[in-house]
Design goal:
Length: about 270
Amino acid sequence: MPSSCNDEVFLRIPNLKKLGILIVDDSDTIQKCYCLDNLVHLTQLEKLKVEVSESYLLIFMRISEGWVDIPHCDNFPPNLKKLTLCRTHLQWEDMNILRKLPNLEVLKLKHHAFDGLTWILSDEDEDGFLKLKFLLLEHMHLKQWEATSYHFPSLEHLVLTDCYSLEQIPLDFAEIQILQLIELHKCMLSVLISAEQIQEEQQSLGNDDLVIRVNYIRANYNWFARVDQGIAKEKSQQHMPPIAVCFLPKHGRLGSSEFLIKMPKLKSIH
């Protein structure tokens, strides 16, 4: 565990602005990391990254409640603007603490930073990510995401990478008028369709600034059924494996197991 992240150390560096914490195995016992509780002493901290090493996860993979304890929002540095969490295996309920951070502008969640198939931000939630401009979800086993523009009023840039299970982007994001860019990498076709619906809704409101960037989209015949029933029927009869739909750069090329399919409904991508 990161024994260097204790009160004594942090009290000596109160003006620290950037901090990275790597949780590795240096103990023979199974224990949770409570080092973030000491962040309260870093009043000037603006950028924080917390990562759990893969070797540590392999050894303690049976822990079901996550590897890191999230302190109360009052114990977080008040000036924190950028937060990255990687392999922390938190529960989505812990997000209720992070969304209360008053100055958070960038949030990056990587490699099972949170566990659970459902992330729901209800209308009853008092606070949203009021200043969050950039949100990254990378390699997250998330299927259902429910939120509104109220929860992300300042969001400008959304990136979804390796989120194979995610069904769609919350459609109410169409109400976020300052949303400028949605990037999709290795997501399902339904996620792209929801991004297009958001873009079309914004265009109907006179906002033509939203751009969708797509590198790679995966879909099986169930997803194609939502776009073209003929394709879905043909592929299901042939017992075809999942299909890859690739939107390639100018000098891109297809891998040996991939092919390109034209889908007329997928439009409005700048």
